[in-house]
Every structure is written in structure tokens, then in C-alpha cells.
Amino acid sequence: MVQYSYFPGCNLKTNAKGFEKSAVAVSKKLNAELVEIPNWNCCGTVHTMTSDNLMKRIAPVRVLSRSRKHIEELEDSPNEVATLCSMCNSTLKIVNKEVKVDEDKLSKINYQLEEDEETYAEDMEVKHFLEILRDSVGYKNIAKKVIKELKGIKVVPYYGCMLLHPEEAKIDDEEMPSVLEYLMESLGAEVIFSPLFKFCCGSYHIVDDETIVDSQVSKILQDVRVKGANAMVVACPLCAYNLDYQQKKLIKQTGEKNPIPIFYFSQLMAIAMGEPIEINHFEDHQIDPRKLLKELKLEG
Fold first, then answer.
1. Do the strands 80-83 and 32-36 form a parallel or antiparallel pair, or are they unpaired?
2. Comparing C-alpha atoms, which of 234, 248, 267 is closest to residue 161?
3. Which pLDDT score, from 0 to 100, does residue 207 have?
4. Could you tell me if 56 and 183 lie in one domain?
5. Were both Cys, which of 27, 69, 82, 197 would link to 4 (CB 3.0–4.6 Å)?
6. Per-residue pLDDT reduced to its tens digit, 87-129
7. 50-91 pLDDT per residue, tens
8. pLDDT digits 0-9 by tens, 242-297
9. CATH number at residue 274
10. Does residue 14 lie within any of the structural domains?
11. Is residue 199 a contact partner of residue 164, using CB atoms and an 8 Å limit?
12. In the sheet where 125-128 sits, what is the strand order?
């Protein structure tokens, strides 16, 4: 069993519990177990654009340092920290690359970490779980673990902004990504392309101006419906929140009769691999995916 030092980030413990629990469950089945880092801290959420703001970089470097120590306790573990949240992935990737090429910056950050008896030696790699599934596990091995093909699921892969941008943090080609597409096909789902696969969902405008999010989400969902899809698959807790919560609000306003359930990729993996449906926490969704799963006889 290969074990990965896994950084959950904050949302996976609150709004995205089904994302984490399903991912951890399928990781064990695939011999690529996600093992949570003890005593982790928030990565800072969004990478600072100010190049000389070292304080904003201390939190992600501390995560990397603690992951490095954690690896020493794990079984057959690569020198990598695994992530699920696309924003955490982006922040950790960018900062890791920065300190690898700037010894002075790393030295100053390590000076701050010394109070906690921690230092970082810039030898870690940051990997999103999707990268691990693609590059280390492989789609053929994933397909071998499928006991219930996702027949009838017509799914649009939605990447959002952070998985494909910026260059330093992207996990796939920004114009023609394929990791979600191949993953869904390995589970037996029908993949439907939407040109809005990285059209911003509105992101943190949900905090200060919901009308921006409403407009963005409405355009995304309209295209999904026009294409004949009955589901969307995502990898970002914020994208999932906006597409799910605001969709329910928009349905009340417009009377739309065709709700589109939002799945995390790991939830669809868990269903296909026969994991108990309870680990997906579908009760936390505003658009309940269980109705579609029941129609397709995939619920139990």
C-alpha cells in the first residue's frame, strides 16, 4: 500500500465532507491511501500576488514542512503532499516552486518557523489527487476496481479556474484538459463536453455580490442542459458550493424543472466502486443527487 501525506484544507472538514470521505475511501481501494497530516494549518486559501509578502507564505511552507515529517511515518510514501481542494493545491504548488528558486526567501521563512522547531528543505512535490490518479494509479487500474458502471450518467466535467491556472499550478492542459474526462470514462459514465469547462463560477463574489455568481452559474447550467447532460463533476469545493447552492436559488426564481446535481469526482468513483452511499454526504447537497442515482438504479 502506497501512502500519501494528505493535506485536507479547511473546506474538506466543513462544506465538502463528502468529497474527503469518498476520496479517502477510494484511495484505499486503489492502493494509494490518503493519510491526513497531523496538526495541519490553513494554507492561506489564495496565493498572495505580492512577491515580497513573506508572512503570507509562512502558512503554506509550514504545511510542506509538516508533510515532510509526516512522510517519514508512512508506508512506501513518495516525497509528495497530496491535495483535494483546487485552491489549496494552487497555493501550495506556487509557494513550493517559489522557495525552490529563491533561497533567501526560504531562509527568511525558515527563520520564522524555527520557533516551532520546524524548517523546510524545498524537496517536496505537491500533487492534486487527480494527478495521482492519472500519473501513478492509472485509468486502467481504476477501471478494474469498478463493480457498478455509471451507465446513464451523462456528465459534464467542470474544471473552474484554479485547476488549469496559473501556469505554475495547473494540473492539465488549460485549453484541452482530459483528466476528468478519462476518469469519468473509466467509471462507465458518458462524458459530455461543455465549452464553459473553465468559465468562472463567480468564486468568492458569493460573499459580497451574489448577483455576479448567479449570472455565472446560470450561464454554466444553461449550457449543461442544452448539451443534454444530467450531471456535473467538479474538483473544487467553492465551485461545488456556488453551482449547487445558487442553482437551488435560481430554480426557485425561474421555475426551472431540470435540476443538475453536482458531484465531486471522488463521489462518482465511490459509487462505481461500491462504497456505501452514506460516505458521500449527499444530504448536504442542495440539489440531491440521490434522485438521479435512484432513477438509474445506482443508489444502492
1. unpaired
2. 234
3. 81
4. no
5. 82
6. 999 999 999 999 999 999 999 999 999 988 899 987 899 999 9
7. 666 787 899 999 999 999 999 999 999 999 999 999 999 999
8. 999 999 999 999 999 999 999 999 999 999 999 999 999 999 999 999 999 999 99
9. 3.40.50.11810
10. yes
11. no
12. 32-36, 2-7, 80-83, 125-128
Q: Which three cell numbers stand for residue 179?
A: 483528466
Neighbouring-strand partners of residue 126: 81
SS (H, E, C) the chain: CEEEEEECCCHHHCCCHHHHHHHHHHHHHCCEEEEECCCCCCCCCCCCCCCCCCHHHHHHHHHHHHHHHHHCCCCCCCCEEEECCHHHHHHHHHHHHHHHHCHHHHHHHHHHHHHHCCCCCCCCEEEEHHHHHHHHHCHHHHHHCCCCCCCCCEEEECCCCCCCCCCCCCCCCCCCCCHHHHHHHHCCCEECCCCCCCCCCCCCHHHHCHHHHHHHHHHHHHHHHHCCCCEEEECCHHHHHHHHHHHHHHHHHHCCCCCCCEEEHHHHHHHHCCCCHHHHCHHHCCCCCHHHHHHCCCCC
- Kindly give, in sequence order, each residue whose CB lies less than 8 Å from that of residue 92, ignoring residues fewer than 6 positions away: 7, 43, 60, 63, 64, 81, 83, 126
Question: Which residue type is seen at 292?
Answer: L
C-alpha cell at 158: 467542470
The H-or-E segment that residue 251 falls in is helix 237-254
* 46 occurs within a structural domain: yes
Looking up cell 509550514 gives: 62
Grid coordinates standing for 228? Answer: 443534454
Q: Are residues 125 and 264 in the same domain?
A: no
Helix, strand, coil % in the chain, rounded to nearest 5: 50, 10, 40
Which three-class secondary structure string do you get for 254-268? HCCCCCCCEEEHHHH
Residue labelled with grid coordinates 443538475: 260
> CA 146 to CA 274: how far, in whole Å?
8
